[in-house]
Amino acid sequence: MQHRTSLLAAAIVAGLCCTPWPSQAQSTTPPASGTDTKPASNQTRAEAKNAKDLAAVTVTGIRGSMAKSLDTKRDADAIVDAITAEDIGKFPSTNVAEAMAQIPGVTIDRRFGQGERVSIDGTDPSLNLTFLDGHPVAQTPWLVGEQPNRGFDYTLLAPEVLGRLEIYKSPEARLPEGSIGGTVIMHTREPLDLKANTVTGTVGFNYGDQADKARPNASVLYSWKNTQSTLGALVSVSHYEEQTDRQGTEIFNYQSMNDASQVSPLVTGLLANGQVAGSDLMPDSLNAAWFQQHRKRDTVTGTVQYKPTDRLEFTASALYVRENFSNFEQSLYFQGPEQNLDALTTPANHGVVQGGHVCGAAAGCSPTIYLDSFARKSVVTTKGLDLKGSYRGDGWELTGQTGASKASNTLQEYYLGFLYGGSYNWDIKHGIHFDDPSAARDPTNWISPSGSDSLLRNPLSSRDFYGQLDFSKDFDGAVNQVLIGARYTRHNEGSDYRSYAQGITNGSLADVGGISYTDFLTSSHFSGFSADQRRHVQTTDGAELAWIDHSPIDWTAVSPANYINGTWSVRQEAEALYAQGNFNVDSFRGNFGVRYVHTKIDGNYIQAVGVPVYPVPDAWRRTSQATYNDWLPAFNLAYDTQHDVVLRLSAAKVISWAPYNQLVPNTFLNDDILNGTGGNGGLQPYKSYNFNASAEWYFSSQSVLAASVFYKHVLNYIDQVAKTERLYNSFNDSDHANFVQKYVNGQLGNCDVSGYCDYTVIRPYNAGAGKIRGFTLNYQQPFGDTGFGLSANYTYTHARNSTGQALPYSSDNAINLSPYYEKGPLSARLIYGWRSKYLAGGFIAGAAPATVDAYTELDASLGWTFNPNISVTLDAMNLLDEKYFQYQDTKREPLNTYTTGRRYMMNLHFKF
Question: SS3 for 842?
Fold first, then answer.
């Protein structure tokens, strides 16, 4: 471990010892919209805000929460969107990301059904940082091979934890650096803002129709404060469970007829006869995939607030989250059958081969069908402690904040792989048909080759530490406030990848036991799919764990290649100074400033020389270092026309970084299909020049009609590029004979008998410039006293790199429509969201990117309020049972099609 304390870090710690610091964001309740927000020339913004609060008329429910969100947007100097605690609770959503999807410019990815990855104004989710009460939250992946994304995993937090959420789409110098699309600030509730002895909570359940299982959820929040409102404490506890069931078909890759002809006499003949073209494609696999997960999330938060005087305030907050992911996944597929082909369906007009037959009565034929069974246990624990405080003098304020968080997860994966050697037909639309279905349903015919099974134990860790000091001084004049500050952050991320194969007992599927037959892919999206592949032989969930746990595993025999490729660590330190001036002249207000950031990145990884061995020689352990200095100016201007119209303009330079694991040249390999992903120690940070403008018309109470435009010129854009690399295949260690038969004799991947193969490895590279431009339209209005209202927005984004290729997770078009009704005890809301196609991750972590087809989400919520203390809601999500469809270059080259089914939630809410 390195022990280094910079002068800046020492200054921060010293300042914190005498002056703790609160969040910079205002904690006052936003005023109602439709009232004058312009301060008089000799009046501060805070005084004007307080005056408006006194004149406000209280509005509750859906309309009240939307009004508060509009107030935050209208009063901000920057371009900001917001949602409040009431908003989050009124949307049909299981996590914060799904509630955020209603904000203009925000889109989410739903690869496992839940809203998970949040894009802002067309940017990759990893380019948008999220802070909880001004501080980072450590997080670590739960999925094997998943990269530790800098973008926040919003499934981590229960919606009940938050008080409000803001997205700064235009930067300010005072805000932490690291975001290109937008900076998300989440605020938890504080006890001095609530009534004494407040108790709120929810009890309910959720049900997924595809999983056909209901799971419970419950939460409770208690807040106390003394009669003088000088001391308060708050604690919240929540438990959430969900059963995820994702079913689908996958094609891992395509190969050209020219490549297939290298090993297939049949293809060679078809090429010679002109029946196929060399550029025609053939799928090298066809998989029926079934992913099942029981997810549990337990969250505990605690806050203590002490405000002995109007000038002095202290806050301490703690966060504990424990997520338990119990996964069972199985796949049935062929792979690379071209050497055994004896019939092929030639494509019409040249394109993609649709089907064929493998083996038949051909002499010496040895076809292979694979059955993979994965059982994964992943328990992610996140802890955080933060201290903050402030002292307010006469026209000045000194604030400070420090804290740390840690996330850890010892990910375990139990893998059993079985092979079946019978002949079969395959059809790209209908799957595999066995020549002898009864033989394929006999578990004794599914054999596990020696060394093919494995157990993975992969400890993952992530740690964050930060400290910040801020000073502000008020002035009489055009520049009415000056802010200066310093911030120190340190992040550590690491992976220790250990897989074991020696000693695991070999046997057939019948030996493992727990035999049954699947019955999935029954959705209308898979009508006509092969019964042989849809209803195939399987082990029951848990059989893999028992079989491997009772095997005499050799714990000293760590797979050298996997350990070397998957073991790494990175440490990123940043020291920042900023100065910002806030101004207010007549109808103009805003801010200008600059932020200086000094960043140092240290990486540790392993690079093998020759055949991998374990333990690893010290000479193979390598380090990488990089240092960067950046000046980041920012300017925001708002013009209030006094006719309920606010015009805004902003310009800024921003930076962002690749995911942590990409900053070191580690490698994650899939030895079975010869592809992988890896890092690059020479990556430069993203640098972007951002320009934003907006016009907002607050034409009525709780109403707005707004338009915004954005342009981001991104330098050093990082593209994921696939290149061929000569790397070691760990199968050679565990099962040399089968490795030679499949990869050397079968001529897959140009492998040699020593175990080295040609892999297609995707690594990040700085690839010139990228441009992201677009606009949003936003409309919101309640229709008088009818109870009806509408919220709607549209986002257009054109995000391309220097070669004209689309940037990841950016849809050209996105639409959200949300009509609602709220009158008396009844409330109802319908949410329609649609986004056009976009680039996203492939079928597994580490797979090549794929295009996701247009996706539609239709949700509904119905609520009944019995009295001010008791209400009930019924939420329904994914009512259209939408499919998640991915393809390669065109829809004629399908890759993955998944369904997760409809989800329902019923909750009883109480408040006292």
Answer: coil
Q: Which two tokens mark 241?
A: 């469970």
Whether a cis peptide bond, with omega within 30° of 0, leads into 685 is no
CA angle 472, 475, 479 (to 5 degrees): 90
CA-to-CA distance for 889 and 886, rounded, in angstroms?
Answer: 10
C-alpha–C-alpha distance, residues 562 and 608, integer Å? 11
Are residues 572 and 477 in contact, defined by beta-carbon separation less than 8 angstroms? Answer: no
Longest Cα separation, the chain: 95
DSSP state at residue 61: H
Round to whole Å and give the CA distance between 426 and 422: 13
Three-state SS for 606?
Answer: strand
Locate 343 and state its tokens.
């019939």
Bridge partners (DSSP) listed for residue 537: 517
Counting as low any pLDDT under 70, the low residues of the chain are 1-60, 85-94, 145, 147-149, 158-160, 337, 361-364, 541, 842-848
Q: What is the distance between the alpha carbons of residues 481 and 473, in angstroms, rounded to a whole number?
A: 6
- Which pLDDT score, from 0 to 100, does residue 26 have? 35
Residues 225, 233: Cα–Cα separation, whole Å: 6
Residue of 274, 206, 279, 275 whose CA lies nearest to 244: 206
Q: How many whole angstroms separate alpha carbon 726 and alpha carbon 193?
A: 61
Contact 493, 661 (CB under 8 A): yes
Assess contact for 897 and 248: CB atoms under 8 A.
Answer: yes
Residue 334's Cβ-count burial label (10 Å; 0-12, 13-18, 19+) is: buried
Which pTM was predicted? 0.87
Residue 881 Cα to chain centre, angstroms: 22
Identify whether the C-beta of residue 299 lies closer than 8 Å to the C-beta of residue 321: yes
Distance of CA 99 to the CA centre of its chain: 15
The predicted-structure confidence for 109-161, as pLDDT tens digits, reads as follows 888 888 778 899 999 888 899 999 888 999 888 877 676 668 777 777 766 67
User: DSSP labels for 330-384?
Assistant: EEEEEE--GGGEEEEEPPTTSSB--EEEE-TT-TT----EEEEEEEEEEEEEEEE
Q: 394, exposed or middle or buried, with CB in 10 Å at 0-12, 13-18, 19+? A: exposed
| DSSP labels, 679-706 | --TTPPPEEEEEEEEEEEE--STT-EEE
CA distances from 566 to 408, 618, 682 (A): 16, 17, 19
List pLDDT tens digits, range 720-741: 788 888 888 878 877 788 788 7
Domain positions in the chain are 7-911
> Which of 907, 903, 897, 909 is CA-nearest to residue 247?
897
Pick the CATH number of 7-911 from 2.40.10.10, 1.10.760.10, 3.40.50.1220, 2.40.170.20: 2.40.170.20
Q: Report long-range pairs for 744-751 (Cβ below 8 Å, ≥24 apart).
A: 746/263, 746/336, 746/339, 747/262, 747/263, 747/339, 748/336, 748/674, 749/674
